[in-house]
Amino acid sequence: MGVCHRDIKPQNLLIIPKTGELRIGDFGSAKRLEKGVVKTSYICSRYYRAPELLFSSTGYTNKIDLWSIGCVFAEMLILRPLFTGQSGAKQLVKIIQLLGTPTQEDIKAMNPNYSTFNLPQIKSKPWKQILRNDLDQNTIDLISNLLQYNPNKRIDPLEACTHPFFDDLRDPNTLLPNNQPLPELFDFDSDELNSVDFEIRKKLIPSHIMESQKKQMK
């Protein structure tokens, strides 16, 4: 718990073909982030680098991984990286061109020590224009909750697991593309479950899994 990967990108995400399970690789940049401890902002591959890092924050949190996940998610939909700046400054420009100019509140949340607010005022583009016209609202909602300038407004990981986008995974009738049953997806440990409120916990584990777990405990 509390470990930040700091380099989430497609090359570090491995899929087990038979089961479709995801494995995260290359923990060379990973770090357990401690509040009040200064961290380097020159971290994470540029295309997937959270905007607070581009604003030179040294007090960032695990939410930088959530931004990177949002970038990977978008890339899976459009089959190319979403933001492709050739330098840190140009990466920020690419983000602003699509998501619009961050507010002063956003900038302070990303880096309270950043005092220069002379950014061009650009409006955000609609997500269907940024990604694809055929996307449903659940997909758009999840991506927009991941790709928030303000790290405090990004959806939490376990809350993201309860998002309607993943409802099919909670359906007992859902099968893998090879017609095999889904692997075990809901084996959260007590630390994970205790880190979220009761309503999130109820949504995390579907009722049919909960009943199965209760029977195994008898």
From TrEMBL:
A single Gene Ontology biological process assigned to it is: signal transduction
SMART domains linked: S_TKc (SM00220)
Alphabetically sorted, this entry's keywords are: ATP-binding, Kinase, Nucleotide-binding, Serine/threonine-protein kinase, Transferase
One short Pfam name that applies is Pkinase
- The source's superkingdom equals Eukaryota
Where do the Protein kinase domain residues begin and end? 1-166
Q: A single GO CC term, please?
A: cytoplasm
Q: Name one GO molecular function term.
A: protein serine/threonine kinase activity
Q: Does the keyword Nucleus apply?
A: no
PANTHER family assigned to the protein according to its UniProt record, in alphabetical order: GLYCOGEN SYNTHASE KINASE-3 ALPHA, PROTEIN KINASE SHAGGY-RELATED
What family is this?
Belongs to the protein kinase superfamily. CMGC Ser/Thr protein kinase family. GSK-3 subfamily.
Under what name is this protein listed?
Answer: Glycogen synthase kinase-3 alpha
Record organism: Anaeramoeba flamelloides
